[in-house]
Amino acid sequence: MNINATLFGQAITFAILIWFTMKFVWPPVVAALDERSKRISEGLEAAERGRQDYAKAELRSQDALNEAKARASEIIALSEKQAQIIVQQAHDAAVIEANRVKAQAQAEVEQEVMRARDSLRDRVADLAVSGAEKILRREINVQAHADLLTAIQAEL
């Protein structure tokens, strides 16, 4: 093996290249790699936070959906109860109105009965007076009286 000045020149050039690379090239490369590593780790952390936020949002949406379903059930139950109350009130009002109409009709019937009785009483009184007049105008005769009373009874 022959060691000469070329080998020393190459070794010195290589040492200068290593020093230059370590001084000027290596720090930006290491910084770029560190920056890239940092961005990757931040991206992974952001992805993990995103997954956690998604899970929380999923739970919140499920809770909101359950709450909305419960509220809808309450509203439906309340509306059914309100409908039953309205139907009951309408039924009660109809019963009250029917009783009022029935009482009014009964009062009208009683008034008509009273008018008919009064009319009948007046008619009977008129017939009695008329019969009495006829009896008194005729001569007193038992047969004539009986015939006249029979005729009055027929008119009644």
Automatic annotation (TrEMBL):
Output the Gene3D superfamilies linked to this UniProt entry: F1F0 ATP synthase subunit B, membrane domain
Cellular component GO terms held in the UniProt record:
endomembrane system; plasma membrane; proton-transporting ATP synthase complex
Question: Where in the cell?
Answer: Cell membrane; Endomembrane system
Q: Name one GO molecular function term.
A: proton-transporting ATP synthase activity, rotational mechanism
Q: Name the principal localization, coarsely classed.
A: membrane
The way it spans or sits in the membrane comes to:
Single-pass membrane protein
Q: Which UniProt keywords apply?
A: ATP synthesis, Cell membrane, CF(0), Hydrogen ion transport, Ion transport, Membrane, Transmembrane, Transmembrane helix, Transport
Keyword Transmembrane among UniProt keywords? yes
**Keyword Transmembrane among UniProt keywords:** yes
Supply the InterPro entries for this chain. ATP_synth_B-like_membr_sf (IPR028987), ATP_synth_b/b'su_bac/chlpt (IPR002146), ATP_synth_F0_bsu_bac (IPR005864), ATP_synthase_B_chain (IPR050059)
Where are the membrane-spanning stretches? 12-33
Highest taxon of the source? Bacteria
The annotated subunit structure for this chain is: F-type ATPases have 2 components, F(1) - the catalytic core - and F(0) - the membrane proton channel. F(1) has five subunits: alpha(3), beta(3), gamma(1), delta(1), epsilon(1). F(0) has four main subunits: a(1), b(2) and c(10-14). The alpha and beta chains form an alternating ring which encloses part of the gamma chain. F(1) is attached to F(0) by a central stalk formed by the gamma and epsilon chains, while a peripheral stalk is formed by the delta and b chains. F-type ATPases have 2 components, F(1) - the catalytic core - and F(0) - the membrane proton channel. F(1) has five subunits: alpha(3), beta(3), gamma(1), delta(1), epsilon(1). F(0) has three main subunits: a(1), b(2) and c(10-14). The alpha and beta chains form an alternating ring which encloses part of the gamma chain. F(1) is attached to F(0) by a central stalk formed by the gamma and epsilon chains, while a peripheral stalk is formed by the delta and b chains.
Family, according to the entry, reads as follows:
Belongs to the ATPase B chain family.
Q: What does this protein do?
A: Component of the F(0) channel, it forms part of the peripheral stalk, linking F(1) to F(0). The b'-subunit is a diverged and duplicated form of b found in plants and photosynthetic bacteria.
**The protein's name:** ATP synthase subunit b
Annotated organism of origin: Ferrovum myxofaciens
Q: Show the taxonomic lineage.
A: Bacteria, Pseudomonadati, Pseudomonadota, Betaproteobacteria, Ferrovales
